[in-house]
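Handout, section B. The chain below has 146 residues.
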Amino acid sequence: MRIGELATRAGVSVRALRYYEEHNLLAADRSQGGQRHYPESAVDRVQLIQRLYAAGLSSKMILKMLPCIDAPGDASTEQSIEFLLGGRERINTQIADLIRTRDTLDAVIRDARTCTVQAGHLETHTMSLSEESSRSTPGSDRSPSG
């Protein structure tokens, strides 16, 4: 498939695909006219790269991981396993940070709702007091024609 079709199917820009190729994260065959042609498997590869980027990994880290992903048994050295474990720990730390952030946001939302509800009761109560005071004010119940 050509670069534009891959970009559409993988949900990325053509520029991103060129970047991945420049950094050896993605390979393309070239036609005689120089056009890039990608295999069907490139869609999954690009989506994997996107997920790894979203997890905070750099191009260099992803490049080091790809041989382990592509051929797990062949590229598994103690060093590569340690590298992958480090990447996994980084992701776990980010997940924990995101959960704490979500919990904080939930608390802010809960407090905001409580304030809104209390403000609604306060507003209702204040209006009731205003109505009550206007009724008890002398002359307030007279009609304008009075």
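Note. The first strand starts at residue 29 and ends at 30. Compare this with the example in section A.
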